[in-house]
Specification:
Layout lengths: L3 E10 L15 E12 L7 E5 L3 E4 L7 E5 L11 E10 L1 E5 L1 E2 L7 E2 L12 E2 L9 E4 L4 E3 L6 E2 L4 E3 L9 E5 L2 E13 L7 E5 L1 E2 L3 E3 L4 E3 L2 E8 L1
C-alpha cells in the first residue's frame, strides 16, 4: 500500500524580521489543535478533498521527535484517478505552552500562566520562578510594542504571515490558521487508499523579545513526504 506520511516537525521560527530578538527555548508542553486536513489539486486549493475534519489536540512536546502520534484521517473513498499536488491544514490559533527561554540577559524568561495573549496583544512573560502552562495565540498580522506587547500602528515587533518559510501560503481566518504545503511529489489516487500519518517534534519552540519578555507563536516547519 502506498502511504502518505505527513511529518510535522514543529521547529518554531520567528516571523519577525525587523529587529533582533535574543534566545530560544524548548517547550516542555506544546499543545496544538488540528481542525481540518484537505488534499488539493492546485497550489491555491481551489479544488480540494477533505480527508479529516475533527478537532484533535496533541501535546507535541510529550512525544519523541519524529514519532507517529496516530492516524488523523481516513482516506477511503478518494476519487479514483484524481491527482493531488498540495495539502491544506487548518489549525486552531490557540496553543497551550509551557517553557522558558535564555535570552542572554541576567534572567530567564518564563511563560507565566497569564491570559493576556490575544489577537491584538502579545504575551508578557515573567523573569522569576518557574514556567507555567499558558494559553498563547497566533496574533494578527500587525506591529506590537516592545515594552508591553500591545498592537501599535507601526514599528516595534512585526508579526507577518505574508511570506511563510515552509508553507506556500498562510492565512488567518477567525480563530483558525490555514497553511498550504506543496507535496514533495504529486499523488494520483489508485485502487488502494493512502494512509495519512502525522508526526510531531519540538525544538526552539518559543522565543521572546528580550527587553521586556514579550513572547509570541511562530510558523511551524512542516515536511511532507510520499512513501
Amino acid at each position: 500500500m502506498k502511504k502518505i506520511f505527513l511529518i510535522f516537525a514543529f521547529i518554531f521560527l520567528f516571523f519577525n524580521k525587523s529587529y533582533a530578538a535574543s534566545g530560544t527555548g524548548e517547550a516542555t508542553e506544546y499543545q496544538v489543535t488540528m481542525e481540518k486536513v484537505e488534499l488539493c489539486e492546485d497550489s491555491a486549493c481551489s479544488s480540494s478533498t477533505t480527508v479529516g475534519e475533527v478537532d484533535k489536540t496533541v501535546d507535541i512536546a510529550s512525544s519523541d521527535p519524529g514519532a507517529d502520534v496516530g492516524n488523523y484521517a481516513a482516506t477511503t473513498g478518494l476519487p479514483l484517478g484524481k491527482t493531488f499536488t498540495h495539502l491544506r491544514i487548518t489549525i486552531s490559533r490557540t496553543f497551550i505552552i509551557t517553557g522558558s527561554v535564555d535570552t542572554g540577559a541576567e534572567d530567564l524568561c518564563y511563560t507565566d500562566g497569564g491570559t493576556d495573549h490575544t489577537s491584538d496583544q502579545l504575551l508578557t512573560g515573567k523573569t522569576s520562578e518557574s514556567a507555567v502552562s499558558t494559553t498563547m495565540y497566533l496574533s494578527d498580522d500587525s506591529f506590537y510594542d516592545e515594552e508591553d506587547g500591545s498592537e501599535v500602528e507601526e514599528s516595534g515587533i512585526e508579526i507577518s504571515y505574508s511570506s511563510p518559510t515552509y508553507a506556500t501560503t498562510m492565512t488567518i481566518s477567525g480563530d483558525s490558521a490555514l497553511l498550504i504545503y506543496k507535496l514533495d511529489a504529486s499523488y494520483t489516487v489508485g485502487l488502494r487508499s493512502p494512509l495519512i500519518k502525522v508526526s510531531f517534534g519540538t525544538k526552539n519552540a518559543i522565543g521572546p523579545e528580550d527587553t521586556a519578555c514579550i513572547m509570541w507563536v511562530a510558523e511551524p516547519l512542516v515536511a511532507i513526504s510520499l512513501l
